[in-house]
Design brief:
- The complex is a heterodimer.
- By secondary structure, chain A is an alpha+beta fold.
- Chain A has a single domain, classed as 2-Layer Sandwich (Ribosomal Protein S5, domain 2).
- A four-stranded mixed sheet of chain A has the order 1-2-4-3.
- In chain A, helix 1 crosses helix 2.
- By secondary structure, chain B is an alpha/beta fold.
- Chain B has two domains: 120 residues, Gcn5-related N-acetyltransferase (GNAT) (Aminopeptidase), CATH 3.40.630.30; 205 residues, 3-Layer(aba) Sandwich (Rossmann fold), CATH 3.40.50.620.
- Chain B is built from eleven helices and 14 strands.
- In chain B, the strands form three sheets. In chain B, strands 1-2-3-4-5-7-6 form a seven-stranded mixed sheet, with helices on both faces.
- In chain B, helix 2 links the parallel strand 4 and strand 5.
- In chain B, helix 7 packs across helix 8.
- The longest helix of chain B has 24 residues.
- The two termini of chain B are 43 Å apart.
- Classes of the chains: A alpha+beta, B alpha/beta.
Chain lengths: 99, 331
């Protein structure tokens, strides 16, 4: 699926993360800020990349400000931001791309 | 969470009292505010938004360390995205740098009293890079004199055109930065297009949109400084120091050109500050006498006045043909 407009999901509260996505034309541009970047930076990146792959997103600027979110939270927030970026608010196909 | 677009009545009064207790003024241009209340419905944290600027963010000192700033800023960012704004900036005190860093903001520039941050990593570096990409390689040669003009061009008049032509006599290449303030009579994109079209025949002129990195008096917040007069001065200084320290050096700008300002006092004092500050950084400020038509100087405000009053012929005489064509095609 293709990013249409900038969108965000999540908050900056503890155990959550704020995900923003924007249209990109340089593949996946990934930016991460995290309080636990030294411990879990790679794991967070892995979850994000997997989620993007499942959603069939290949061109995106994605930026994450993480406040210690669990993998499932990160996944849900990334999906939420992607759905919002294509203007899909009902019948969300969680875990899959919007068609 | 108490929200307002903007807050009204008693809630607004309470927010103003809360901000005053934190040494902040409520900014009149605010379009949205979010506040967190305690069990007694007293405000303990608040933040506001104007355009893509987050402002008046404060947390009650008794409630620090509870993550309230994160909740407030999250709410503000959510509002901004809902309104299609993804590039956000904020001005704050330097001591707040760590806090905003942890909320996903990056420092662009800071002085002793003001810290300017944006939410895009290396946003400023990308801005400079984009300028360098459209600047002819020849302009980077040793010995080339590069000049700059910063203007609103609201709209682009014969006066601007004259200023650019005169400036070109005194430099090899000229960067023209069109301010990106959105609260102008003509929109930022329209003004940029007018300047592009109006200078198409001048190949040593390079036109840019100033984005958020050059501040007009209007976009600049005065809220965190108590004295308005002092605030205006500090604003000018901040904008000029930023220009001199991080914008001019990578572009090798050695001269800044400016029209004399006989009318507007704000611009007048800005120009005075410019003549003081920029030479300290080795940037020469050259004032160019404004072009006169009839018995008055040509100014964009004169054009706007004429347009508002339906005196279109008067307006047409003050702007280049390219501007007039652009404006008539638009409407």
């Amino acid at each position: 699926m293709e990013i249409v407009q900038p969108a965000m999901a999540g908050t900056l509260e503890s155990s959550d993360c704020q995900v923003t996505v924007e249209p990109g034309n340089n593949g996946i541009e990934f930016n991460l800020e995290s309080v636990v970047i030294n411990q879990f930076g790679n794991q967070i990146k892995k979850v994000v990349m997997e989620t993007l792959k499942n959603m069939e997103v290949s061109q995106v600027k994605i930026s994450i400000v993480d406040k210690g979110a669990l993998d499932c939270t990160i996944k849900a927030r990334v999906e939420g931001a992607l759905f919002r970026s294509v203007g899909q608010f009902d019948h969300l196909p969680w875990g899959g791309a919007v068609r | 969470m108490l929200e307002g677009r903007p807050l009204q009545g008693r809630a607004l009064e309470e927010l103003k009292i809360f901000l005053a207790s934190q040494d902040l003024n409520y900014d009149e241009g605010i379009e949205y505010s979010a506040c967190i209340l305690d069990d007694d419905f007293k405000i303990i944290a608040a933040g506001s938004v104007e355009e893509n600027v987050l402002k008046c963010i404060a947390v009650d000192p008794h409630h620090l360390g509870e993550g309230l700033s994160g909740s407030v800023v999250s709410q503000l960012i959510q509002y901004e995205f809902e309104h299609g704004r993804s590039r956000l900036v904020l001005y704050t005190k330097p001591k707040n740098e760590e806090m905003f860093k942890s909320l996903g903001f990056y420092t662009v520039f800071q002085t002793k009293s003001v810290l300017f941050m944006e939410n895009e990593k290396q946003g400023f570096e990308k801005f400079i890079q984009a300028i360098q990409e459209i600047t002819p390689i020849d302009a980077k040669d040793y010995g080339r004199i590069v000049g700059a003009i910063v203007a609103n061009c609201n709209p682009f008049t014969m006066g601007h055109r004259y200023l650019i032509e005169e400036a070109l006599k005194q430099c090899d290449y000229l960067h023209v930065f069109v301010l990106s303030d959105k609260r102008t009579f003509y929109g930022a994109e329209d003004r940029y297009q007018m300047v592009l079209k109006g200078t198409e025949d001048l190949n040593r002129v390079i036109v840019h949109q100033a984005s958020d990195y050059m501040v007009s008096a209007a976009t600049f917040p005065t809220y965190y400084l108590k004295e308005k007069a002092f605030a205006n001065k500090a604003n000018c200084e901040f904008d000029l120091e930023m220009f001199a320290e991080i914008i001019a050096p990578p572009l090798k700008i050695a001269r800044r050109f400016v029209g004399t300002e006989p009318i507007c006092r704000v611009t007048g004092s800005y120009n005075t500050a410019m003549k003081q500050i920029l030479p300290e950084y080795g940037i020469e400020v050259i004032e160019i006498e404004r072009k006169i038509q009839g018995d008055e100087v040509i100014s964009a405000s004169r054009v706007r006045e004429a347009v508002k009053n339906g005196r279109f012929q008067d307006a047409e005489r003050l702007v280049p043909e390219t501007t007039w064509r652009y404006l008539t095609q638009k409407s």
